Amino acid sequence: MTATRTTRRAWQAFGALMSALVLVVGAFSAPVQAHSTDDWTAVSGPGTSNCRYPDSSRTGVYADFDICWSGSTVWVRAFAMDTVDGDGWCGIAQISYLIDSNRNGVYEDHRHVRSTETDCNAPFGDLSGWYRSNYPTTQLWGRACVGYSNGDSYACDSWR
Ligand SMILES: [Ca+2]
Ligand SMILES: [Ca+2]
Fold first, then answer.
1. pLDDT attached to residue 115
2. pLDDT of residue 17
């Protein structure tokens, strides 16, 4: 078995684990399912100009994010671009964050991960719509991943 295949097996196992931990929501195609919080509502734009704009890339993918917040309300949209045509991989923009789902003032300590946008056709990227958090939300990070057309990631950049 090659190292690459071993790595891929490990990622597939990780993906299965994540599938057991997180949840698919609305327009977000996500490798997730666990407890049924619907974390996001589609909206026309952010309710604040207090934003940051991280970007992330690795071979085969570029992603950037508009992340805005007012208190514990967060707005986010993501751009994903497949940068290598014909390699069999899609480009995925993923986000990760913490929520206070029971609104007791304490963020639960397990991270939610969502694939917010997936682009499988180089060179033009896809931009998601805006989403507003339904629960108090904090520490929202984004990263670029290469992966599958259903949004499951295979290999990712660091969180930004
Ligand atoms: Ca590709
Ligand atoms: Ca809580």
1. 95
2. 43
Measure 37 CA to ligand 1 centroid, in angstroms: 32
Closest ligand to residue 90's CA: 1
Among the residue ranges 14-28, 64-78, 107-121, 122-136, the one predicted with the least confidence is 14-28
- Compute the distance from residue 25 Cα to the ligand 2 centre, in Å: 19
20 CA to centre of ligand 2 in angstroms: 20
HEC assignment per residue over the chain? CCHHHHHHHHHHHHHHHHHHHCCCECCECCCCCCCCCCCEEEECCCCCCCEECCEEEECCEEEEEEEEEECCEEEEEEEEEECCCCCCCEEEEEEEEEECCCCCCCCCCCCEEEEEEEECCCCCCEECCEEEECCCEEEEEEEEEEECCCCCEEEECCCC
